[in-house]
Specification:
Oligomer: single chain
Order of helices and strands: HHHHHH
Strand content: under 5%
Low-confidence stretches: none
Largest sheet: none
Length: 174
């Protein structure tokens, strides 16, 4: 069942991707389309990272301004909202990174658990950095939404490096 969903997710993304590349060619931007194809993994990561960022920011806003409005202490509300946003984005990011960006195939349940565990551990590491940045925003009286966007930029870069080097690394074939 998971394989069917994975294939469907990738097929849908590739259909949209091919439509975008077709449009670029039709408006005489073939070189841009070729550049995309040459750097497809990194650009797919940026697209999916951007979508994960949107999920994270929307979940943060929902948490901070709707769900956790009863929390009076601003720092506690920011932290709870940040954790809520992290969990929503974690689930979404794992799904799109596994199925679209890295097209990861786990040969057994043990490999899947290892992949999920390493993904989660790396995301917790970068989330700690994000929480530190958000707490700095409260301390320095910086707008939390502005800092949330900046924190997500830092997190996207770190997550790509960790995903490429640790989580979804391809075994070298000899």
């Amino acid at each position: 069942m998971e394989k069917d969903k994975k294939n469907l997710t990738l097929r849908i993304f590739e259909t949209l991707e091919n439509f975008g590349l077709w449009i670029l060619k039709k408006i005489h931007l073939k070189k841009l389309a070729d550049l995309y194809k040459d750097h497809i993994e990194g650009l797919r990561y940026l697209i999916c990272g951007g979508l994960s960022t949107v999920v994270n920011i929307v979940a943060y806003i929902l948490g901070s301004y709707l769900i956790f409005t009863g929390i009076v202490d601003e720092q506690l509300k920011v932290n709870v909202s940040e954790i809520f946003a992290f969990l929503a984005a974690l689930i979404f990011a794992y799904w799109v990174n596994k199925t679209i960006v890295f097209d990861s195939k786990c040969e057994n349940f043990k490999a899947l658990i290892k992949e999920i565990t390493s993904f989660t551990a790396c995301r917790i590491f970068t989330e700690i950095i994000s929480i530190a940045m958000m707490n700095f925003a409260v301390y320095a009286n910086i707008n939390d939404i502005v800092m949330k966007v900046l924190a997500n930029i830092v997190v996207i870069i770190l997550n790509f490096i960790l995903s490429k080097l640790i989580i979804f690394k391809k075994e070298k074939e000899e």
